[in-house]
Amino acid sequence: MPLENVTHISDLVATNPASGDPMTQGDDHIRNIKTAIKNDFPNITGAVTTTQAELNKLAGSPVTADDLTKLNSITVTADKINLLANVASDVQGQIDTINTTLTQKVDVSYVYSVADIDGLQTALDTLDASKLNNTGDSVSGGYTTTAYDLGTIYTGAVALDVSNGNIQKLANSGAITIKAPANSGDYTMIVNVTNTASAGAVTLTGFTITSGVDFDTVDTNSFNVHISHINGKISAFVEPLQ
Question: What is the pTM assigned to this prediction?
Fold first, then answer.
């Protein structure tokens, strides 16, 4: 019977050599076995002591391509594979254990596990939320924000929405109407209106009451519209900034 053409273990034929094959082919069969083993296990340089049961835990595991990529930069040796022998949990647990053990041995970034995130959530859950709601307390620091930009309004109506932020701005470049926000609840907001060279008349609509100065159309002039929505009533006060 002819010899197999062997590259991998799967190429070996279990029934070879047949009893009638010449003895002179015996060494060829042995070399085929060596070739297959060395091709399929090229990086094993020592004894692998993990059991078949431990290796079988990897079968059907939810390991993703990302998980394999994280392990790509690790030089796997027999000693590192044998770390699996001490892991009795699921595959994710095995990966977490290997990652933690090798953190200081290889140049890879630490990967936060589910346990790390759960621990952070527990810490956040223990915060005394009532401290955020105390009345009569003083605040020693302030907060800053970036005004939400409504853009350049050339004509028509712009409907304000406090969910975009309490500080907003727009450029007046034509006859425009500013509509009161329809959001529920109590809140305040400031909308800055700055004229361009083609600024037009500005009309406020939907407010319970308006006060302050009248808008003008002078180029670069700017106005702050202070809006308060309390107890279902909404007011607008126009403040000149020149």
Answer: 0.48
φ, ψ for residue 126 (rounded to 5)?
Answer: -85, -5
β-bridge partners, 158: 178
Residue with tokens 């939810």: 62
d(CA 40, CA 66) in angstroms, rounded, equals 23
116 three-class SS:
helix
Conformation bin of residue 152: beta by default, left when phi > 0, alpha when psi is -120 to 50? beta
Residues, the chain? 242
Q: For tokens 């009795």, what's the residue?
A: 88
Give the helix/strand (H/E) hosting 28. Answer: helix 26-40
Q: Identify the DSSP state of 3.
A: P
Token pair for residue 28? 């060829």
Beta bridge partners of 1: none
Running DSSP on this structure, what letter comes out for residue 196?
A: -
Which tokens hold the place of 84?
A: 């699996």
**Contacts of 24-31 spanning 24+ positions with Cβ under 8 A:** 28/3, 29/3
- Spatial distance between the Cα atoms of 100 and 121, rounded to a whole number of angstroms: 21
Q: pLDDT tens-digit profile of 51-101?
A: 888 777 766 666 666 666 666 666 666 666 666 555 554 566 666 766 666
Q: Greater confidence, 12 or 223?
A: 223
**Both tokens assigned to 85:** 């022998």
